[in-house]
Amino acid sequence: MAILPVTMYGDKILRKQAGRVDEIDNETIELITNMFDTMRNASGIGLAANQVGADKSIFIIDVANVEGYEDTKPIVFINPKIVEYSEDKSVFEEGCLSIPDIRADVERPEKIKIIYQDTDMKQQELEADELLARVIQHEYDHLRGVLFTDLVDEETKKKLKKPLQKIKRRKIDVEYPISESHDYQLTF
Length: 188
Ligand code: ZN
Description:
two-stranded antiparallel sheet, Peptide Deformylase, 22% strand, single chain, five-stranded antiparallel beta sheet, alpha+beta, binds zinc ion
C-alpha cells in the first residue's frame, strides 16, 4: 500500500495517449492498489494511471462517498473504449486532482456505453448515466491526453489561463503528494 505523487497540469504524461495493457502482472495489480490509495487519500472519485505517472490505459472510479451512490462498487477499467454517446448532453461542474482548486462547467453527453477489461482481463460492458457517465468520461479523456479545462468555453479558458500557469509552476498548496517535475513518470 502506497500513496503515489499525483501528476500536475503541465506534466508531459498527462498529454500522452496511454499505452495499452497486455497482461495483468503483479506490478499492474500493485499499481491499481496504489491508485486506489492515492485517490482516496486525496478524496477523489476517479483517477487515471497517468495521474500517478504510469503510462497505462487504466482508470479507476469509486463514487460510494457521493450521496445517492453509497451502494456503487469501485470499478477498474482497463483498455477502455467508449462505444456509444447519447445525443442528450448535460452541464456539470468538474474538478481534477491534477488541476487543484479549479472547478468549471463542462458539457458532456449524458449517457455512455463503455467496453473495457476487468482485472482478470475479461471483457466487460457498462451503460452509465448521470454522475457515473460524467466521471467515466472525465477519466477516459485523461487516457487520451485530454483535460477538462480543454473542454470549457472560450471565456472560461481565458479566466483559467493564470491559475493553470500557477499549477504548472507549482505555485500552489496541495494537501496530497504531487510530482516534482514535468517529466515525472513511473518506470515499468
Ligand atoms: Zn482528472
